[in-house]
Amino acid sequence: MSHDLLIVRNVFLSLFGLGFIGWLFWYALKKSDDPAKLIFKWVLTAAVFWAGLKYALPAYAEGGLSAIYGLGLTMSLAMAFNVLWRHSIIEILIKPLTNIFDGGSEPPPPKPVYSIALAKRKTNRPLEAIVAIREQLAKFPTDFEGIMLLANIQAEDMNDLPDAEITLNNFCNSPNAPDRQVVAALTQLADWHLKKTVDVDAARAALEKIVARFPDTEISLRAEQRLAHLGETEKILLAQHDRQAMAVPEGVKNIGFLDSTEFLRPKEIEPGKLAAVYVKHLEQHPHDTEVREKLAVIYARDFQRLDLATMELAQLINEPKHKPKQVAHWLNLLANFQVELGADVATVSATLEQIVARFPDSPLAEIAQRRLGRINLEFKGQQATAEVKLGVYEQNIGLKYGRPRQS
After folding, report:
1. Across all residues in the chain, what is the average pLDDT?
2. Which of 144, 180, 249, 355 is the most exposed place for a label (fewest CB within 10 A)?
């Protein structure tokens, strides 16, 4: 290597070393809690090194008593260095271990604080609470806790549902709003419309936003089921708001002397009429699982129509948005109907095997497997029940009123 290249290399390495040392000093100052104290320690450290180079090294070089003097001076300078930097050295050695327990020196991520707003709300100062919340939301505009707290104060404390609706709609219209939080906000808005103003149309609009935003999901299915029952909710709420005097009919006199009180029992709705009501309801709300299951029960238990009950339950079972627990319930219910209405063992087994196939390695599959293991006993129990009922009927047939006596 030529002399000029050697000089260039040494200059480059020197500049690199000085730059690295300068960066270390800058980084240390940036991380320090007391930069002035750190600079003071650096100055003293430089003085210690200068004293060592100026006095200790020459004394060593002279030898004899001067070397002893140099050794004592070196030890004194080392003690001074230790006094200056012992805490920093211990921290460097121990820090990796303490970081495991205290999380290190990195500050936690900033979070909004609503304690002031909550205290003002508690002392019945909602306007001041709103100001405190808006101060935090100016720093954290997408914080769901703050959005809901603001809307709650507007709706509950200020009775200003329109402003609360604006607050929640602005949040829901944000493209980065998480799905779960959007659903919670719109559901809360629907609840307020029903509770405060009994505005079913506004509540329906809020729930329909959920259906439109999350189509073909479990979220939209729950919203559709709630939409199907808004009419019933409206009747209950209106009854609570507009309580009217109820005329109580006069009771039956001398009830203890009557031969029968059967006429006092409330008449049950005929299954045919109830089924017609359910069918009409499902035409408007086809995703109402509660009503569809009730209709299947009427078809099976009241009309012994396994085909119609199977058709209704199949719509529930084959809907992909339902939870596994619900699907398993409907498959077990279908198996019950099949056992009661005379299906063969193979048909019932095929129904239960659907649970195992759909949800393998799950508790639902284990329960279905256990039921499959005793399916023959279940059929025998059903047959025995039918025989017992028939026998009791035949034994008591002579007790029927008006049966001619045998001579």
Report:
1. 79
2. 249
